[in-house]
């Protein structure tokens, strides 16, 4: 997510019903990496800071499936200058 200042909370919702909220102010240079792989689930800010305490306790993370995935994002404090960039890193094999 990039913007002059992203405030408060962002809620990501998958059409199957899973959702999670990240409650944290982010700046334009911040990079949040959320790993939704089963048994690995991590949230890291700028490669070092644990964001997991900023993810709601009722979070339901979901895997992205092959093909098109639709995810809704509701960001409080967002402006017309707010940008969200999503990059998928496919994992072909799992343990």
UniProtKB/TrEMBL annotation:
Its domain of life?
Answer: Bacteria
Cited Pfam families: SPP1_Dit
Q: Where in this chain does the record put each Siphovirus-type tail component C-terminal domain?
A: 8-91
Output this protein's name: Siphovirus-type tail component C-terminal domain-containing protein
Q: Which organism is it from?
A: Actinomadura litoris
């Amino acid at each position: 997510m990039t913007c002059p200042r992203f405030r408060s909370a962002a809620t990501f919702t998958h059409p199957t019903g899973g959702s999670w909220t990240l409650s944290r102010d982010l700046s334009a240079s911040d990079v949040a990496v959320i790993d939704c792989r089963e048994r690995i689930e991590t949230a890291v800010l700028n490669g070092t800071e644990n964001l997991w305490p900023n993810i709601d306790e009722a979070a339901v993370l979901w895997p992205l499936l092959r093909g098109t995935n639709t995810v809704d994002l509701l960001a409080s404090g967002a402006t017309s200058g707010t940008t969200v960039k999503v990059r998928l890193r496919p994992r072909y094999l799992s343990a």
